């Protein structure tokens, strides 16, 4: 099991949700967050903030690649990760997920996803 987290532009959320649906990924958590970074150019330690959306998606191993690729393409990346991109901004994180418990049923592990 993995936890896929993505930070994307808010205006790309609908496209990402449609791409995830096409990849048969239907359960996700969406949060409004601030993306804070220091611009590469310019003097001093000035930081800039911009609104972003964070997606948290628990998936079984067989869904990791389709989930990452769907987010990447729909958020504005190239055809596949690693092929370069245009003006897309954001990141996708894939983290190990030790356990999951579905509150309604008590199911654990891959069956809870």
Structure report:
19% of the residues lie in helices and 30% in strands. The chain is of the alpha+beta class. It has a single domain (2-37, 48-112), classed as 2-Layer Sandwich (Alpha-Beta Plaits). Strands 2-3-1-4 form a four-stranded antiparallel β-sheet, covered by helices on one side. The longest helix is centred in the middle third of the chain and has 11 residues, at 64-74. The model has no long low-confidence stretch (mean pLDDT 89).
Summary tags:
113 residues, alpha+beta, Alpha-Beta Plaits, four-stranded antiparallel β-sheet, 4 strands
Provide a quick synopsis of the model.
The protein has 113 residues and is of the alpha+beta class. The chain is built from two helices and four strands, in the order E-H-E-E-H-E. It has helices spanning 13-22, 64-74, and strands spanning 2-8, 29-37, 48-59, 91-96.
Ordered list of secondary-structure elements with their pairings:
Layout: E1 2-8, H1 13-22, E2 29-37, E3 48-59, H2 64-74, E4 91-96
Antiparallel strand pairs: 1-3, 1-4, 2-3
Helix pairs in contact: 1-2
């Amino acid at each position: 099991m993995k936890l896929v987290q993505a930070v994307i532009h808010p205006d790309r959320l609908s496209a990402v949700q449609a791409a995830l649906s096409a990849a048969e990924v239907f359960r996700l958590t969406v949060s409004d967050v601030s993306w804070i970074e220091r611009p590469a150019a310019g003097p001093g330690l000035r930081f800039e903030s911009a609104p972003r959306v964070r997606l948290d998606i628990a998936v079984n191993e067989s869904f990791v690649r389709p989930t990452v690729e769907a987010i990447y393409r729909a958020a504005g990346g190239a055809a596949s990760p690693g092929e370069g991109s245009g003006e897309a901004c954001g990141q996708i994180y894939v983290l190990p997920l030790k356990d999951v418990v579905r509150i309604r049923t008590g199911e654990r592990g891959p069956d809870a996803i």
